Amino acid sequence: PRSLPNILRGPGTASLNAVRRSNNQSMVPRFLPCERLIQNYKEDLEPALRELRQKVLRKQKRITEATARLFDLSSKTHKSSENEQEEGRIIQNMNSAISDSSLLG
């Protein structure tokens, strides 16, 4: 309808086009600091991510040590009831370490 005179285009068309132009212009600068925004988020998240990695590594170490201890106990030919109780505790600890949902907490 650009070929139509302003009166025939309907009320508000010119102002609507002006709003569209101003919106387009105002949106351009919003995308410019994107890299800076990403950098800020990265700097904010980096310590939490580092802490999460450390928690995961500690849990993996706990599970590995428990597995080694469990193999050591199970390799003994003569098992005392004390050994069997310790095996049960180790297995329980391993299960709780694996299923522990408080990784982030």
Which keywords apply here?
105 residues, mainly alpha, rod-shaped
> How much strand content do the residues show?
under 5%
Dominant shape: rod-shaped
Radius of gyration: 32 Å
Main β-sheet, in a few words?
none
Distance between the termini: 60 Å
Region (Disordered): 1-21, 72-105
Biased composition (Polar residues): 92-105
Biased composition (Basic and acidic residues): 79-89
In short:
Residues 1-21, 72-105 are annotated as: Disordered. The protein has four helices and no strands.
Layout of helices and strands:
Blueprint (H helix, E strand, L loop, with lengths): L5 H4 L3 H19 L2 H41 L6 H19 L6
Helix pairs in contact: 3-4
Any overview of this molecule?
The chain is mainly alpha-helical. It has a domain at about 45-100. Helices cover about 80% and strands about 0% of the residues. It contains 4 helices and no strands. It is rod-shaped.
